Amino acid sequence: MSEILGIINFESNAVEVSGLSDYRGIPSLSFMGRYRIIDFVLSNMSNSAISNIHIHVRGNSRSISEHVGTGRHFNINSKRGSLHVFSNESEMKASAYHTDISSMSQNLEFLSDADEQYVLIAPSYFVYSFDYNDLLAEHLKSNADISMLYKSTDNANEVCIGCDTLSYEKDGCNPDLRRVVSIGVNRGKHKNRSISLECYLMRKSLLLELLKEAREISPFYWLKDIIREKVDELAINGVALRHPVRCINSLESYYTTHMNLIDQSKSKAFFREDWPIFTRTSDSPPTLYNSTARVKNSTISNGSMIMGTVENSIIGRNVVIEEGAVVRNSIILTRAHIASGIELDRAIVDKRAKVFNAKNICAAADDIIYIGRSETV
Amino acid sequence: MSEILGIINFESNAVEVSGLSDYRGIPSLSFMGRYRIIDFVLSNMSNSAISNIHIHVRGNSRSISEHVGTGRHFNINSKRGSLHVFSNESEMKASAYHTDISSMSQNLEFLSDADEQYVLIAPSYFVYSFDYNDLLAEHLKSNADISMLYKSTDNANEVCIGCDTLSYEKDGCNPDLRRVVSIGVNRGKHKNRSISLECYLMRKSLLLELLKEAREISPFYWLKDIIREKVDELAINGVALRHPVRCINSLESYYTTHMNLIDQSKSKAFFREDWPIFTRTSDSPPTLYNSTARVKNSTISNGSMIMGTVENSIIGRNVVIEEGAVVRNSIILTRAHIASGIELDRAIVDKRAKVFNAKNICAAADDIIYIGRSETV
Amino acid sequence: MRNNQMVAMILAGGRGTRLYELTDKVAKPAVYFGGKYRIIDFPLSNCANSGVQTVGVLTQYESIFLNSYVAQDSRWGLDTRDGGVYVLPPREKSGGFSIYRGTADAITQNIDFLDQKEPDHVLILSGDHIYKMDYSKMLKQHEDNNADATIAVLEVPLKEASRFGIMNTDENDRIIEFEEKPQQPKSNLASMGIYIFSWKRLKQYLLADEKKEDSEHDFGKDIIPAYLKANRSLYAYRFKGYWKDVGTIDSLWEGNMDLIDPKSGLDIFDPSWRIYSEDITYPAHTITDTAKISNSMVNQGCLIEGEIKRSVLFHDVVVAKGASVVDSVLLPGTRVEAGAKLKKVIVGEGVVISARKKVGTDGEVTLVSKDI
Amino acid sequence: MRNNQMVAMILAGGRGTRLYELTDKVAKPAVYFGGKYRIIDFPLSNCANSGVQTVGVLTQYESIFLNSYVAQDSRWGLDTRDGGVYVLPPREKSGGFSIYRGTADAITQNIDFLDQKEPDHVLILSGDHIYKMDYSKMLKQHEDNNADATIAVLEVPLKEASRFGIMNTDENDRIIEFEEKPQQPKSNLASMGIYIFSWKRLKQYLLADEKKEDSEHDFGKDIIPAYLKANRSLYAYRFKGYWKDVGTIDSLWEGNMDLIDPKSGLDIFDPSWRIYSEDITYPAHTITDTAKISNSMVNQGCLIEGEIKRSVLFHDVVVAKGASVVDSVLLPGTRVEAGAKLKKVIVGEGVVISARKKVGTDGEVTLVSKDI
Questions:
Q1: What superfamily does domain A4-267 belong to in CATH?
Q2: Cys-Cys crosslink for B325: which of A77, A200, B338, D221, Cβ 3.0 to 4.6 Å?
Q3: What is each CA distance from B238 to A126, B182, B195, B296, in whole angstroms?
């Protein structure tokens, strides 16, 4: 059995996908038509044989609870393993107090009860496919207190704005330790940066100490704050992720990631044959195209009926594109309905929205139009 | 398939099992060692072939969500049926606003989407075993707008204090309609009363109208308020429940119900062979008694180790009663531990509490002592 | 439906030789259908949606795959506490191994299973029909009629009636006569091979039939005639809607084509009656710049760079640039290389069609079961 | 454990005639044990707790109940997306029906199943042993040794070693010799009948063994010796802890008694290694005023009005006033009427012991399988 307890952390208030995240947390966001963003970190954990998983969410937990269920469709043994979804809705209003530290501290019993020696903490808003056992191996080899994943990027001026960055040095005595010497923030001023994926591996006992210490310092502290502060005191090992990563921390990154991954030569690194990404099935039939369908360069999910024109777009599950509708450069979410005569360009149409009347919804080149959940326009 | 959508309603603020309900809602309360109170209404629905069920809870929904899971261990087809747990933690603080009307209204989409023609609304704090199809049959025969279950009691001065009562008349034109003419409150002044079980059956369309109307009148209205108001306008049919009922609306009623149901001749009407009460298994081994065990007139759950004296008590799952401990007239919940030398009388020991030092915990004849969750005393 | 009010038994034994290589490795009910499904998903989903919780699947031939497919009963939500899908192969008995000698014998050999479940009624189904049917409505009629047995029937054109088992009924749809493939049909009510029997009564007849040496132990040939002879109350249940036996390559192809024909009456998009199936982990499919697609059904995991017309594509199919797929059914993992042309073809699982190959004609359906 | 790193195959074929009437209706692995469990719950729970997700259960004789019992794989959490418990009876082949001719042959006949799952390793288990074991640790040793096969062994008293298959090993626990029930045992390492084989290698040996006419197709008699002869790397995995073959009435009784003996080493209360089983809907049991109970294990649904001493009671047992149950095992639904006296008895499911009957002695275990 795995020695690692998995903790899926929630994102800070800085992470916001305007519009979409008004209706649900980042982990619940639709991704590439049929997934939710949380499916990646959860599948990574499951494929890494981690079977005891704590999911901390902001706000209402119903949709995540129903999505993950008992974990069996994420390939987790529901008797031996366990999945807990912790939410703290009551403190949502005073959100500065609702930190990951406070959420974990309020559910200490579950943390203390766990048999696992190590904890792996990761948020859902970084998307990648990776075996966390490789991180454990690096951690054990390095003899570090904490190992953290990072990704070297050469376009940090465009992506991962606001994310933590890190600097490291080779450790003089320990060649296996890539010692993190400082943690900063990516303000988008530089191209080359090592972006922290906020994915930490450490002994459970150390996490318990850090939680205690952080609470003593400030109720507003996040885990990353206390780790940043400990950078001199603890041996923190930076581990580079070789696989591609996408960071979904804004509406723009959400949109560009989607547009980018229509290309199967790019998306296949995220959907690897030997590393399945699980999700909850909707039991939808395959996509139906009728005689008037005209589709180019798009990713289309099951359950949809395509009778109109679709170009450079992502279509979610159970969407209807009527004959005579034109959808370009857009993301259409589950159960949305685009009526005949409508033309969309650079739009994100949320779940169950019905676009019936607004004839032309075309955003300017560097803008994106968002149509809200269940709205009829 | 069933024509009924089941709605498990939450109880009003008047219902409180002091101590125990500080840690969880009434539906999550332990019942007779191995059950939770919600198991009755949920099993009643499942056994009545109702497979689409909405559970509204106050406060945190995690424990109920995990308890009901996908519904499969409550015998509900998880593909065809569905179980949703709705909570509204954020409004907990201003609890006067957190009514059943507001909770249902906030999740109208799920109500509107349901295919079922009828809704059955019932809270979990009335415990009984009953086929709701019998209520539907009575409802259809009576041609009423609403049918509601009631129980005739001859000790209303002792039980169901604060519950709704109802008066009815035979309808002149319709012999199948036992027309409810007024709804009051049981103040405990009279022995003979017809107690409303707050279990209503009506068309979904009528519920939607009532929700709308109630919100227009007042944000503090509960469903029972608007029904009380409609007593002249609508044909409300009272249907008598013949099976025994227990009402768990206070610490005292919680305690006396338990003491009462140790007697199998009384409890068997609640645990009928043809009407299974489902719960979530804890995979505990059978109870182990050692050579020093001395047990009389008690109900003991699996996973417990009994090495001391137990009399007239209910022992929950995975409890340890050490050699030399004495437990009388008490309720001991899951994973509590009673150490050697301790003597308990008329105590309720909550989950995971450890009674190690306080030698004698004996309540006076009409009092009950409560020992809190995870406390060590 | 109350627990164990009715247990379903699916007769899934057929080797399905008329499906040729498609049943080389799987039993007929496990054959792929409709871009995503296997044939047996239809009766199993019908059971789930009708509230039938316990299903026995009677298999005979090479059932390893069918076994492991239906055993994952959570796919149809049939993994409830008291329910489940049970694979029931013939078993070793004191007198050595036996096989199922006929449709009725398959049930007779599983009397112990049914007695353990104690159902009021038994629903007998076939594993190779495509249709959507609410068995709870049929059960209601069965109970309202207080019938010993109820047989689902379909109204067929009278001129085709001689191909079917035909039920002759009175004005209340009580069956007074059953004729197997009559030359002069007296009615157009064709048996769909779907029966509800009250279990206690059926058990008597099965045990009596077991001893008859001249019996073929078949529901249509032996049990129903025995009921009629004893003047038991048998009723017809009239089903309206799409129903198709997909036991041949031609009918399997037609059934797939019906899915993309809005006039066929086979609607698998109805959210109130989903057909459940295996949950596959492939991302949504991609249609590239060079593709052209119309009148088709495409499942997840596909990459379409060529032309697709009036076709059904299962998961993980790749159609390369310049290839054209018309009037065809491509099973999972099919690779159609650049410039290949397919016309009225069923391509087997994982088969590769090499670049610029031309396969199929306007006439008969062509089955391609190995790489070409 | 990674997906399909290791698949378990449980040999559950035995008729278990030494358990007499207890196996009249169920196969040996489905026999009740320990107040709540069936024997096969132990290997299945061990699999679940060790991270093995896919389990094949090889049954032969009268497997209807065992089938439906293990098919409900959610009981052990084995209903994961890629996992499951698969019942694998012998199947009809082109050449007619076959049966499993030996332990190795049972695997050989299911090579197609294993190939479909593509495991790196296969874990071979027996369906009638009571023990708790973390197979992932054994797998780790197997992989660390880069072994072709690893055999779990138990250290037994040397004087009893001649009753077992004995492994003679070198200083690294590499097996150099295997002797079946040796008269002069050279070591005390007894085989527990638990093997891990690397699948590709095992398949070669199975296919070679299938063709040998003089082979009994047995792991102990044929496969292991063939590995040794070819100088393959076989290692012993030393297991410490409780292990018992409960294949006879006496050993089954002893196993039950071990549960209430704190010194036996069989601890089913350990929350980190739960044994999972069927979930029964009975309320907690009740002990009345007139009862007296000590050194016993009692399951839910019981009503105890009499005296219980050193006994194991399954669910739904009633012991009336004045009755006494000593050193006994009462299977589900047993009724012990007023004043009856039981001593060292195993009472079968649902059996009624009439008022004032005296059954059993201090000596041999008495099996009561019908009402008396």
A1: Spore Coat Polysaccharide Biosynthesis Protein SpsA; Chain A (3.90.550.10)
A2: B338
A3: 57, 11, 10, 42
**A136, HSE (Cβ side, Cα atoms, 13 Å):** 18
Q: Quick check: do B4-267 and B288-371 share a fold?
A: no
Contact residues of A toward D, CB < 8 A: 1-2, 47, 49, 51, 72-81, 115, 278
Give DSSP secondary structure letters for A178-241. Answer: EEEEEEEE--S--S-EEEEEEEEEEEHHHHHHHHHHHHHH-TT--HHHHHHHTTTTS-EEEEE-
ipTM score of the complex? 0.90
Which tokens belong to B22? 């500080």
- Contact D50/D123 with Cβ under 8 angstroms? no
Four-residue CA torsion sign, D177, D182, D183, D188: positive
**A265 sits in which H/E element:** helix A264-267
Does D110 sit within 8 Å of C64, measured CB to CB?
yes
Residue of D nearest to A80 (CA): D49
Cβ contact D339:D353 at 8 Å: no
- CA–CA separation, D216 and D229 (whole Å): 17
Q: Which candidate from D74, D287, D297 shows the least CB-CB separation from B286?
A: D297
The amino acid sitting at A52 is N
Nearest to A65 among B65, B109, B374 (CB): B65
Query: Per-residue pLDDT tens for C69-97?
Result: 888 888 888 888 888 898 887 765 544 55
Label residue C7 exposed, middle or buried (CB < 10 Å: 0-12, 13-18, 19+).
buried
Instruction: State which residue of chain B sits closest to D37, comparing Cα positions.
Output: B285
What is the DSSP secondary structure assignment for residue D221, as one 8-state letter? I
Q: Looking at residues A339-356, what average pLDDT do you find? A: 94
The answer to whether the CB atoms of D276 and A74 lie below 8 A apart is no
Bridge partners, C198 (sequence order)? C121
Classify residue D93 as exposed, middle or buried by CB count within 10 Å of its CB (0-12, 13-18, 19+): exposed
What type of residue is C9? M
Flag if D83 and A1 touch (Cβ within 8 Å): no
Q: In the complex, which subunits touch B with 3 or more CB pairs below 8 angstroms? A: A, C, D
CB B19 within 8 A of CB B49: no
Homologous superfamily (CATH) for A288-371: Hexapeptide repeat proteins (2.160.10.10)
How would you label A201-224 residue by residue, b for 16+ Cβ within 10 Å and e otherwise?
Answer: bbebebbbebbeebbeeeeebbbb
Give how far D89 is from chain B: nearest CA, Å: 28
User: Using CB atoms, which residue from A61, A85, A283 is nearest to B79?
Assistant: A283
Measured between beta carbons, the chain D residues lying within 8 angstroms of B301 are: 284, 300
Rg (CA), chain C: 22
Where are the domains positioned within chain B? 4-267, 288-371
Nearest to B42 by CA among B2, B3, B83, B78: B83
Pairing mode of beta strands B30-31, B35-36: antiparallel
pLDDT digits (tens, 9 = 90+) for B237-254: 999 999 999 999 999 999
pLDDT tens string C160-185: 888 888 999 999 999 999 988 888 88
Q: Which residue of C has its CA nearest to B274?
A: C3
- Could you tell me how many CB contacts below 8 A there are between chain A and chain B? 44
* Residue A112 Cα, gap to closest chain B Cα (Å): 13
Per the CB < 8 Å rule, is A76 touching D80?
yes
Residue of C nearest to B46 (CA): C2
CB-nearest partner of B90 from A66, A84, A90:
A90
Q: How far apart (Å, rounded) are the C-alpha atoms in residues A286 and A277?
A: 19
Q: Does B95 touch chain A (CB under 8 A)?
A: no
State whether D89 and C91 contact (CB < 8 Å). Answer: yes
Q: Please provide residue C166's backbone torsions phi and psi, each rounded to the nearest 5 degrees.
A: -110, 135
pLDDT at D58: 87
